[in-house]
Records
---
Amino acid sequence: MESNMNFFLATDIGEEISEKVSENSTEKVSELSKLFDGFSSKMISLGINIINAVIIFIIGKIIIKLLRKLSKKIIGRTSADEAVVKFVDSIIKITGYFIVFIVICSELGIETTSFITVLGSAGVAIGLALQGSLSNFAGGVLLLLTRPFKVGDYVVIEGHEGIVKKVDIIYTTIVKFDNTIIKCPNGDVAKKVIINYSNENGKRVDVKFSVHYDSDINKAKKIVMDVIRNCKYVDKERENNVVVMKLADSGIDMETRAWVKPDDYWDAYFYLIENIKAELEKNNIEIPYNQLEVHINNKNDNNADNM
């Protein structure tokens, strides 16, 4: 009897232990199942987001490429400088990929608001620190878009005279006729008066000179016109002339009207000055200069003579 009771007691304890183990196992399996389901759903969601990000990148890249081609085509019709084309292309490329980057981060669940805020604050700080450079940058953009001059033009900027060698975003490089290189900040260039002597019709050389009032004006004109005709830099197909400018105190002021290519301006100018003087002197045409005549009236001598 007692043995039977022990048997039943042992059986009950075994069943209880079995039930508890079964319950624990079921709970653990359920937890693992939920964890796996959650992980799998997150992985699927992440995979979808990654696929979407790749699609966004591909579409964005295609759009940026199309915009760059379109901008080059439009700017190319305006005969803009190569520097303008490259600058606009760089702006479109950088801006486009930045927008694509922000969209991809948002798609992947990365918070972009704080990122944009930090970037904006950094931009303001950098802008304040680089005010001068940004002014030059803005000036460079204006110069590239408005094109008051181009590479190879003969210009005078801020009192600096020479040939434009390069127009960058920050500086404009000018080479003077003594081969000195000058870099003018574009911020200043955009605000200053720019004298551009280069154009399709050439540049006129005006050499001023004077002849004495006793000289034959027509003869002087003929001599100077011969000098102009013999100058190899002068465009013989243009109307070149010698004119009377002013009847001055010491002589008759005259001036040449000779057309040359912009690159030949100074060579023609120096040639005309030297040869006009030489030919006028050779033909006995006097070149006047300021003279002061002093008349002395000696009153003491006059009084002594009267006495």
Note: Residues 2-77 form the longest helix (76 residues).
---
Amino acid sequence: MIRRRSVLAAGVLAPLRWAAAAETHYPDRSVTVINPFAAGGQSEPIGRIVNAHFQSVLGQPFVMENRVGAGSTIGGQFVARSAPDGYTLLLGTTSTFTIAPYVYRPQPYDPIKNLAPIIALTEAPTVLVASEKSGFRSLEDLLRAAKKEPGRVTVASAGIGSFPHVFAEVFASLVGVQLTHVPYRGGGPAMNDILSGQVDLFFEVISTAAPQVQSKRAFALFASGTARSPLLPDVPTTSELGYPGLNLTSWTGLAASAGTPASIVELLNREANVVMQSDKMTDLLAHLGIQPVGGSPAKMAERIAQEADLYKGIISSRQISVQ
């Protein structure tokens, strides 16, 4: 007869043995990297370079898989619920890690409790883009019109609770104007309607906004941050204009499910930091107008915690939710 004490001991030791085995041989098969956004987004080329490096140095395929929907929470939830073995990773953004989990109800996952941060990879300035038809050529033009006729000016977003939506809410609150929100099913359709003049404004990452501004199909009123971007050297920053509270960036990071062995997290972090300094990555980020971040898992965890507090307050005060 197996005694109860032996059963309990086996139950306690089994996860430890499994974790030790996972650490010793990782990876011994292909690793899936979940991209919670549609193919073609700004994080995809970054993720592909990281995946190629991981595959080269670790000897197993790292395969990108798109699981889209619900503001990136479908992909985020899938990883949060996956086995904590390092074989399912999340290539998420600001929305995935600090916004969308607090917008959707019931809450799909807790990014602080259910995910294991690996590394914050990149961050990008956000550009306030105005349509040609709007007539806005400066922030002053916009504020004058918005205060004269509250609610007349329209602002597009990539969907309710998306980063562009939340940025628009922060902006409206900070400068004291009322804008009419027009949500779209993604950033592509929103930008298309900026170009056709169907909506007035859109807060978009610089990699997507810059080509439209450079071709003069749209106008940039400002870019978030403290230093002007080489891609848009004539566009003032939010700091220059006296709005440091608008220095919000869209960032990309890599995470696993909570409970993933520390040695696996540290291995992936170390190699991700290596590839972030590679010539191929440096050239890509310069082309996109995006800055590298890098650093430790603890640094990413701190960033998630700080920004989650910020965005939860905004989401609550502006009553943003999706059932």
Note: Residues 126-246 form a domain with the D-Maltodextrin-Binding Protein; domain 2 fold (CATH 3.40.190.10).
